[in-house]
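target protein:
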Amino acid sequence: MVKQLLLASLGLWFLAGPSYQASTISRFDCGTDTSHASEEFLNTIKGLQSGPTGGSHASRAVLSARETSNDTVITVDTVFHIVAKTESKGDVTDDMPQAQLDTLNEAYKDYGIQFNLVNVSWNSNDDWATGAKGSDLDMKKQLRQGTYRTLNIYFQTDLAGGVLGRCTLPANIANGRSDPTVYNNDGCNVNANTMPDGTMDGYNKGKTAVHETGHWLGLLHTFEGNSCDGPGDYIDDTPYERESTDGCPDSPPKSTCPDQPGSDKDDPIHNFMDYSTDDCYTGFTQRQHDRMHHMYNTFRDGN
């Protein structure tokens, strides 16, 4: 792994606001939702959902055998950027990137997606590490590596905004729609204290990066829209969920939409795209698998 020290003084375009220390965050929160999605992304997921709010059979037919096969494996080249304040450089140890990679691969191994870590960059910059106002895009312009199919995760030791992470959803940058800002901004911002053996109790087993990578691959939150009606996350086999999960409330089971038809009325608290604690997460659904493969093939592969 290559270590590089980049010194600069720039700030965050996406989240204005104060820096938050790890100890001030008591539950999972993520800065990604459909307000950050491109028109192409929204039209695609609307067309793929069945039911009264979903698309046509013809639209859903684009989920080819290659994309829905459990035998198909996507290998994603991945770059980790460790971005630390001077006083926080010791928070991320040399073995934590490998442990984080192992966590990603363990989480996605049953869903035909694996991650190949091609580089780790080590950066000391107080503004970048906190997301000081105005610097996020500039940080990514200087650090981002690879193509649009390369996953770049920025592990910031003092990420601002009161969230544990946020990530870009895929957009159409091919076919004459290439936008340098969309390309440069692509990737995930993750609080470095959520890496395995980090200081974020309850959220320090690397599952925040798993959650954020789900967004990068085209998934929304299971509670998207915070309603028991409407399209939710536009995926048919995730139960309706009116509100995000705090902790792991499995006894009694959490059920925010008990009047919805169907046999599964419990909230998907064990799904990686909810807001549960790391120990609570267990996996994705079959159609989340299909969606990630389709969105990667549609928006990222070949770009």
